[in-house]
Amino acid sequence: MKSISFLTFIGLLLLFSACEDETINNMEDINDQWTETNAENQELMEHIQQIMFKYNAHSYQYTGPENGEGQGVVVLLDARKKPIKGVPNQDLNRMASALTSLRIIQKNMAQLQDVDEIFTVVEEQPKPKNGMGPYFQYIAQNLKYPEQARKMGIEGKVYVEFVVNDFGEITDVKVLKGIGAGCDEAAKKVVENSAPWQPGRQKGQAVKVRMVLPITFKLDNEAS
């Protein structure tokens, strides 16, 4: 009888362990980028404050391109919100350039924060509410060997990536590495239809966690 087998929970943990070093390296890269970007941000802020202090400006008006391309325009304002006259164009252009760069940097910092919202390794990993045993039974009962793959004799592992969000819902399901012949779609579908899990936790808070589930398709021609 032809059947489908899949990796056990131990195999799944081994995969996460193998990915842990790469994940830590990625997190360190993100932290390094954050530190460097934040330093640039502070340097630009100080440059802007120096120019404002030089002309006793209380505030400013800045008009600049949303995409960061081109030169913005700055007007320094006094305590009555009136434009300060006699400020050299050289200083105004320097401040406009700093503000344009600052806008780009702050956008990059926001993107780094977005990257950090989805974890890969957390203190408490997500898990099915009824445990891994019943979850694998669910896979065995609902994952079907595609007829095309049977006829072609295709076997192998399909690696399915998904995110368990902070409510335990399975989202953003996609195939990282597949074997084709309908197996990729079958593996993706069975994960998409999974019941909600217990969410992962970091420092006691429920967080989004990206996970990878390897599912093995294997033909068994022995009689049952």
UniProtKB/TrEMBL annotation:
It is found in: Cell inner membrane. SUPFAM superfamilies: TolA/TonB C-terminal domain. Keywords: Cell inner membrane, Cell membrane, Membrane, Protein transport, Signal, Transmembrane, Transmembrane helix, Transport. It is a single-pass membrane protein. Residues 1-20 form the signal peptide. It comes from the Bacteria. InterPro entries: TonB-dependent_transducer (IPR051045), TonB/TolA_C (IPR006260), TonB_C (IPR037682). Residues 130-224 form the TonB C-terminal domain. Belongs to the TonB family. This is Energy transducer TonB. It comes from Agaribacillus aureus.
